[in-house]
Amino acid sequence: xxxxxxxxxxxxxxxxxxxxxxxxxxxxxxxxxxxxxxxxxxxxxxxxxxxxxxxxxxxxxxxxxxxxxxxxxxxxxxxxxxxxxxxxxxx
Length: 91
Prior knowledge:
By secondary structure, the chain is mostly helical.
């Protein structure tokens, strides 16, 4: 599987949207699936480890409210910067 920061961002933001709509019974599980896909798409083991840690928090329901959304959102800036670096290198 080709590693792609754009795809990681896509999966992370999809997970955030699903977590924000967790009133629907299946959305928490779909968010977990999106986080798994983001793990697979991340290029470096440290990065995938951070995504995995966020996924486990969501999966285990360790945090109430929107705190797990904040944890997933905290991953976004790194991948946004990585995407911009990739674009700049391609120019």
